[in-house]
Fold this protein.
Amino acid sequence: MKLATAAYPLSWLDSWAQYEDKLADWVAQATGQGAQLLVFPEYGAMELSSLDGAEVAGDLERSIRAVSDRMEEVYTLHRRLAVKYNAYILGASAPVNAGQGRPVNRAAFYAPSGGQDHQDKQIMTRFERDPWNIAPGGPLKLFDTALGRIGVLICYDSEFPLLGRALSEADLILVPSCTEALSGYWRVRIGAMARALENQCVTVMASVVGDNDWSEAVDRNTGMGGVFGPPDVGFPETGVLAQGRLNRPGWTYAEVDLDAIAHVRADGGVLNRSHWSEQDPRVESVTLSRL
């Protein structure tokens, strides 16, 4: 299969039609290159707050509510694009009112059939806890698709190995991210590459890029697209199948072979995924006397 993962710049939007055109252009470009799975980044939907004007977009709490209020329209648009272009699409995540008091960070997943589901972020970063006050969402899911089994770890979630292990049956783990600094980008990238190593699978990282002085929520962003696998038989020695250029908007493409994933899991140079259970606690407390 061919994947496309986005380094996505947010736009100031003067109309809903402008947003529709932007998304349609991005999807058409990726599918025109043969991509069957498209991955947009975390909090890419925050650009929708600009539709309510500068005062709302510049206010954290009001921008969160404004984006959440538009998500039904967003879902309808993405379902239409997934069907029209015969592609799976992980939409940009957004703060979504899920009926539990505070919004969750939710990425919707769309199928070419018109079907839709979602993945919520599990563990909040410091800024999502305070001042955003975003709540943890529903459980991790494993999506069975025509392209294989797909899981999603939203940004910070990719930095936790037990969350990755919960998706050990996934062939692909999608990692939509939104990181302000280069250090944040690398934390998520290292997490994504580690999950690919441990699970002997492919991870697909998307990023928000660029500066947006009109937004309090997503004013500074650093990243690029990347696709990673285990550095083992059938994969590049670096584990990097593809990567974009830092902070340059656009799609990064990669070809992924499910047979290669199955082969490295069965007969790789190492068998991290199969040997996971051998990590049973081995720590012993030892006191060394002074010499």
